[in-house]
From TrEMBL:
UniProt-listed InterPro entries: GH
Residues covered by region (Disordered): 336-377
Biased composition (Basic and acidic residues): 359-375
SUPFAM superfamilies xref list: (Trans)glycosidases
Biased composition (Low complexity): 339-354
Name listed for the protein in its UniProt record: Beta-galactosidase
Domain of life: Bacteria
Amino acid sequence: MAVPEVAIDAARPARRRFRRRALAAGLALLAATTVLVTATRSQSAMDDGPGLNFGVLGSTCDPDRVAALRASGVRYAEVELTWGAFEPAPGRYDRVYQDRVRQMLDTCAQAGLSVVLTLGLHAAPPWVGELAAGTYRDQAGGLGPADVPNVVFSAAVRDAVRGYLAELDRVVLLNSVAAIRVGTGYNGELGYPTESTSPATARPFWAFDEAAQTGAGLAEDVSVSPMPGWTPGSPTWNGRDVRPEDVRTWFRWYSQSVADAVIWLAQTLRDQGFERDIHLPLAGRGALPRDLTAAVAARLDGRTMATDDGSLEAGLYYPEQLHHIAQRLAQSQSPRQGAVLADTASVDDATAVTARRRSPAEDSCRPEDSDRDLESDPEVVRWSSFRWTIANARSAGLDVIGENPGSPDTPRTGGNALTDSLAEQMLQAPQYARDCGLSLLMWAFEDDLCSAPATLGMFATQIRAVKDDPSGISVEESCA
């Protein structure tokens, strides 16, 4: 029996909620183009062994789709849960929703698709945000989104997360899935949220709840602000001038705190017995070194930031964060446990289009990227987002997977006028994944593959083009 899509769409975050149902014009470009490539082998951390594997984001595990997906070369399906639907009240679980989740996972597994599970911590029930320091608060007192709870600083929120994960493991046996995605912000990615309820805050920084500022209700092993009461842009603190090094210390604390929350989530899963892979989705490229330097000099007042993508407010600075995450998790890693993989969510985003047009092109990865001094090399500003993210992840010792950004017409996927259409992404993203040595490329989204005739067949053609051994992959015309 098909599982109704509403089973997991009820409180789905913005990136999934507004998925397009049809591809943009331009599929003829893909249908008429033959891509001649030869994949290079790299040791994969994924279950299917060496080489580049393919999956889909936003899967419904619909019986009418999964067989066609599998036949076309798709091997992984990301299933996104909604915590709010799973546990609408503290300790009260929706058994109907739980049954639907089990059925979805069983259907995908029976079709031979390995499930990558998104926990849905960014789609939390309202009661979590009402816990002590349960909701993020910015420097103007504005509250963060109610469905993205304060897992960074709030001890009460972390206790609620532990209970949810324990019940989820009881219901679905987490070790039955291939991987779990962990994150703290919108779409389950690393970072703080970026939208405030306060009209006075154009650039909200999310470290002004009571726990972060005073330590009341603070999560274990988390530190309070190094400058309690100081707000970004303020020239003084406690009667003295604020120096650039003070601001840098504050931002390092802010950025490391959100990284520590991801570390805590991964370690909590390990403590509960999860031994498979952990995926760390990374949105865009975060702040570049030059942007951070200029912003710190201006005390994070927002007037000198070269980009306006919210990376600093989200606390994203990969040169430090990814090393910190990799080192901390390596300390508790056991030989029987799976890998922690950085997941770059920007394979063929708008920055790739710009970098592709440069002379020489700066869009795709090069073998020496991770050996460069990434914090001082001035050329990195010319790179695509995914090239920068992959270089930082590999420099930190992390394996890397990726996903395309999805339709540029879909809200909150980062698309703009420069972003390739989905048809063009289908040409470019697999080649980028191959050239950068990724072990898995997740396609955004299953609905887009299945919404137009022949689209899945085009995707299957791309899969065959980049895989070493295409035998056994048939071209399915549709999964509608």
